[in-house]
Design goal:
- It is a single chain.
- The protein is α+β, with helices and mostly antiparallel strands.
- It has one domain: Cytidine Deaminase, domain 2 (3-Layer(aba) Sandwich).
- It is built from four helices and five strands; from the N terminus they run H-E-E-H-E-H-E-E-H.
- It has a five-stranded mixed beta sheet with strand order 2-1-3-4-5.
- It binds tetrahydrodeoxyuridine.
């Protein structure tokens, strides 16, 4: 999939789930309210939001909170076929590097990731967002 700004209706609907999830954000320190929605290959949609901590460093991003919830709910065989990220701050929010590496464990390489960017909502294939994830396979 090419990096693009236009989007399809399924991704738009996934984005709405992400926006809804952001309403539950626990972000008293940054006030940055993020939501993520994962579409699994089984058809299920799993959402998450950022959960901050007074220690700051223990904060969990929306994307990882969704992923952990998906595994806890549907088990270790899940595969992610699309990701949507939203925030309620009218800001850009591509997934952070840590979340990309964690998503890499369960996501299809070509899965579209839709997120707010400088010039509107942007969609990129996961393997474009993280071209060389840490992996110990010699191939
Ligand atoms: N955050 C996310 O939820 N996802 C990201 O990919 C980047 C940042 C959260 C963490 C923190 O609660 C707030 O946004 C500000 O960094």
């Amino acid at each position: 999939m090419n990096d693009q700004y236009a989007t399809d209706p399924e991704l738009t609907s996934l984005l709405e789930f992400a926006q809804q999830a952001a309403l539950n954000s626990y972000s008293p320190y940054s006030k940055f309210r993020v939501g993520a929605a994962l579409k699994l290959t089984s058809g299920e949609i799993v959402t998450g939001t950022n959960v901050e901590n007074i220690s700051y460093g223990l904060t969990i991003c929306a994307e990882r909170s969704a992923l952990v919830r998906a595994v806890a709910t549907y088990g270790p065989e899940i595969r992610i076929e699309a990701v949507a990220i939203a925030n309620l701050n009218k800001a850009a929010s591509p997934p952070c590097g840590a979340c990309r590496q964690v998503l890499a464990e369960f996501i299809l390489p070509e899965a579209p990731v839709i997120f707010p960017a400088a010039n509107g909502v942007r969609t990129m294939a996961f393997d474009k967002l993280l071209p060389l994830a840490f992996d110990m396979k010699l191939k």
